[in-house]
Design a protein that fits this description.
Pfam families: DegT_DnrJ_EryC1. Helix 1 packs antiparallel against helix 8, helix 2 packs parallel to helix 8 and helix 10 crosses helix 12. The chain folds into two domains: 235 residues, Aspartate Aminotransferase, domain 2 (3-Layer(aba) Sandwich); 125 residues, Aspartate Aminotransferase, domain 1. It contains twelve helices and 15 strands. A hairpin with a 2-residue loop joins strand 6 and strand 7. An eight-stranded mixed beta sheet has the order 1-9-8-5-4-2-3-14, sandwiched between helices. A four-stranded antiparallel beta sheet has the order 10-12-15-13. Strands 7-6-11 form a three-stranded antiparallel beta sheet, with no helix packed on it. By secondary structure, it is α/β, with parallel strands linked by helices. The structure holds pyridoxal-5'-phosphate (PLP). Pyridoxal-5'-phosphate binds next to helix 3.
Length: 379
């Protein structure tokens, strides 16, 4: 057996990406606009059910422009799921606003509607109604859409749906990315599809899409010279990157099926070991792309084997695995921010591990993973 590094999630090209990139060169559209940009936007729009989509330089840029267009500005507060990647929260601070973090619930690991309402009520009582809510479909698992949106609607607060990890996931048959006022997608190198780097914003209207593109291309007024009445950004996706995206869209569903197969592989692998739970959908309303498969380890039931023991055993075998996201309310950079909840996100971080989940893992890779698990858990 070879000993090449097995990654958590690595780029997986379908084959036609380079043809779209070559097309950009052949026609000299080597710029942040061109046929691949509009083509990729169209592919995403059709895939998600004919919604307006603007492609951008990153998911972080998409979050920034979404919050901006929800009216977030200096001195505001924005509620954000604590259990997430820092990119969900950072753009709140770009606007001079402050994040207020909310804990997760156990079934989807995403924002708890109960703690969400507690946070809203308390912030209003303290004198400031939150301007927006960033809810995340972490690891591709849809959050409790009905319950979370019912709370947001009750207080009339817009949701920015961070669907960076959830392209292709659905809730009650509807695509993740299309529930919030705005939906954010990411095509970074480790995501379910990649453009080497990139993102997109799903918009509530064609007008909002055009305004997003306007902001993302330096906010130029309609004049023969450069005139500006707004602060602009340089956030548009390049025509080269968009070419990769068009090729990736052709294999998206096939790659989701392969990632879902990896999740089934882990469920099979761990079913005979007490104390290890594989994260999967709570019921049939949820369809997860299983961007990353993850486990929770309970050392009380594994003869003391911990998450760290498993992680280190993988590392020794040149296999990448990683603890679940460290919650934002535990991050030094956000230590002064308010937090509502209990210990759910904290416990997930303490005991959870992400496992190699790529759509390009071979049966030999699976054997190497299996071998490590048998060695570390069959004590
Ligand atoms: C990757 C990611 C982002 C940011 O996307 P980029 O394209 O890397 O800027 C935001 N939120 C979550 C949950 C992510 O996983």
């Amino acid at each position: 057996m070879n000993n090449d590094k097995i990654w958590l999630s690595s780029p997986h090209m379908g084959g036609t990406e380079q043809e779209y990139v070559n097309l950009a060169f052949d026609t000299n559209w080597v710029a942040p606009l061109g046929p691949n940009v509009t083509g990729f936007e169209n592919d995403l729009s059709v895939y998600l059910g004919n919604v307006p989509v603007a492609v951008l330089s990153s998911g972080t840029a998409a979050l920034h422009l979404a919050l901006l267009q929800c009216g977030v500005s200096a001195g505001d507060e924005v509620i954000c799921q604590s259990f997430t990647f820092s990119a969900s929260a950072n753009p709140i601070t770009y606007l001079g606003a402050t994040p207020v973090f909310v804990d997760s619930e156990e079934t989807t690991w995403n924002i708890s509607p109960i703690f969400l309402e507690e946070a809203i009520v308390d912030r209003i009582a303290k004198g400031k109604k939150p301007k927006a809510i960033v809810a995340v479909h972490l690891y591709g698992m849809p959050y409790l859409v009905d319950e979370v949106h019912a709370v947001a609607d009750k207080y009339d607060i817009p949701i920015v749906e961070d669907s960076a990890e959830a392209l292709g996931s659905t809730y009650k048959g509807k695509n993740c990315g299309t529930f919030g006022r705005y939906g954010v997608l990411s095509f970074n190198g480790n995501k379910i599809i990649t453009t080497s780097g990139g993102g997109a914003l799903v918009c509530p209207s064609e007008e909002a899409k055009q305004h997003t593109i306007f902001l993302a291309t330096q906010a130029r007024d309609d004049a023969p010279y450069y005139q500006h009445s707004h602060i602009g950004y340089n956030y548009r996706l390049s025509n080269i990157s968009a070419g990769i995206g068009r090729g990736q869209m052709e294999v998206l569903d096939a790659h989701i099926n392969l990632r879902r197969d990896m999740n089934v592989f882990y469920q099979e692998l761990f079913k005979d070991f007490d104390g290890v739970t594989v994260f999967t959908e709570p019921n049939e309303d949820f369809h997860c792309n299983h961007w990353l498969s993850a486990i929770i380890v309970d050392p009380a039931k594994t003869n003391g084997v911990t998450r760290e023991d498993i992680r280190l055993a993988f590392a020794k075998a040149n296999i990448e695995s990683r603890p679940l996201w460290k919650p934002m309310h535990m991050q030094p950079v956000f230590e002064n921010c308010a937090f509502y909840g209990g210990k759910t996100a904290f416990r997930l971080f303490e005991n959870g591990l992400c496992l190699p989940s790529g759509s390009n893992l071979t049966s030999e890779d699976r054997q190497r993973i299996e071998k490590v698990i048998f060695e570390v858990l069959s004590l």
